[in-house]
Structures are given as structure tokens and as C-alpha cells.
Design brief:
Shape: extended
Largest sheet: 5 strands, mixed
Number of domains: 2
Helix content: 40-55%
Number of strands: 5
Amino acid sequence: MLTEPACPAIADRGFPLGAAAAAAGVTVTALPGPSAVITALALSGLPTDRFSFEGFVPRKGRLGALHLLAREERTMVFFESPHRLAESLADMARAFGDDRRLAVCRELTKMFEEVKRGTAAELAAWAASGVKGEICIVVQGAPPREADLGSGVTQVLALVASGSRLKDASTEVAEATGLGRRDLYEGALAAKAAPAPPG
């Protein structure tokens, strides 16, 4: 019987059993039930249209791992132990910035359910005195990076150099950056036609 708001096989020891059953040809199905990830996301007050589940915050190399996620634009959901919560929140403030919005959701669907919302710095200070229970941390995604035409053209040329057609490369970069496909195409043509600098 489940005693916590987790979904079996999602960051859970039920995964090996489910995988083995599927590999053996046994029918595997799921019934809708409590999921800490979705519940925390819904209660966080942060965008829910696009999100990533990052599992438990890494114990080793935590700050470096968080730095790698600093430019992630989707809302992120983490699990964390109450004993490491304060340190993880402090590292999130360092990696994501003091002002990044977070929600710490604990004891979801239980009697002492609590959702604490604030900035990374505020929640790190709040958690320093100790927090108990099963915990999810929901982190606001990074603001979209502003793309400029020069960097977009550079990306197009890199794709062309790796074998893409110019038209396809221009379309791909336009979709990723929001820049105009025609502007990228013409900019790449002009860059290719420009004489190489002396050297």
C-alpha cells in the first residue's frame, strides 16, 4: 500500500519491477492516483504549461548540476530530503539567482500539507531552521534568452557545416529562437559570400 503521495515507478523503487514485468511480456497498467510531481506543480503558482521532472536534487556535485539547469526555461520539479533541503535551496539561490521564484511543497495530500512560496533566497532562509516531511521543490524556469540575428546566423552556418541544407537550417533556428527565417537565410548567404578575413 502506498503511504506517500508518489506515483509508483516515477523516482520510486517500483520502477525495476514495472520494467521487468514489461520485458517479460506481462501486462502493465496504471490507475490514476496521487502524484507528488503533478500535485506540487498544480499548487506551486508557477507556470504549468511546460515542465521537467528532475528527480532528487543530486547529493554530490549539487551546485554544478544546478548550474547546468540555470538556463532551463521550463518549470522544474525536484524531490528532496528534509535533511538536505536548506543546503539545496541555498545552492539553488547561488545557481539560479536569489530572485528566482520557488515553491516548497511538503506532506502533500496529508494532514500537515504546506506550500511555501517565495524567492530562492527567502526559502533558503526559511528552511535553515529545519523542515520535516516529504518534499517537492518547484522552480520557475529561466526567462527566455534574447536571440540576436548575428548569433542566429552563426547557428545556421554551424548546421550547414554539419550537413544541413541552408533552408532547413534557417527554419530550425527560426523555430528555436523566434527570429525570422528569411532574415536568417539571407544573413547566412551574405556571411558565406563575404571574403574571409586576412590571416
